[in-house]
Amino acid sequence: MEIFVNGAKADVTLDTEKNLGDVLKSFESECEKNNATTINIVVNGTELKSEDFESQTETAIEDIQTLELTTIALSDIYDAFKNISSNLISISEKLRDISVQFQKGQDAKAITTIKELAETFSFFCRIVTLSALFPDEFENLKIENKPVLEFFEDFSPIFNDFEDALKNSDSVLMGDLAEYEISPRVDAIVAMIDSLLKNGRCQ
Prior knowledge:
Elements (H helix, E strand, L loop, with lengths): L1 E4 L2 E2 L10 H14 L2 E8 L2 E2 L5 H4 L9 E8 H22 L2 H6 L3 H25 L3 H4 L3 E2 L2 E2 H20 L3 H29 L4
Parallel strand pairs: 1-5
Antiparallel strand pairs: 1-2, 3-4, 3-5, 6-7
Helix pairs in contact: 3-5, 3-8, 7-8
């Protein structure tokens, strides 16, 4: 059996492991020592779904040609948050310029900022989801004293208004929302991340 970890072939010697479950248990034990965990498992080219996990753990080693494992470490989460913070600082500044850009006919610049915001928020939500794999470190993430989910639930109507303004080509409303509603909330996310990076175990 060939084992690949994050795309690289691993030099692993199996000892007492007899089935997939044994291998995964041993691997996860090693991951825990390095503040990491497994987030995806591919057996013989087929991704192992959560609903099939229990039934597949009895698969004998002899029946496994390749085992591909994807892991994420606590340090990876912190690095991702650090990158997100840097991106959002830049985006927040650009959001405050959108009104002027529309007035000057620089619509392309404004739209680029909006796309950057959407992409960064999507990545942020993914990292927040992955951070839940490390509850001791990220269990009580809050933005403006609100749980992240609640913060975004309150944020959602503003995004809806912005989307409507975009569809209606209402540049004035888009500029006002970007500068006075979205940018301050982006700053709040940055503040949360900065506090996390300052007080967390991995920086």
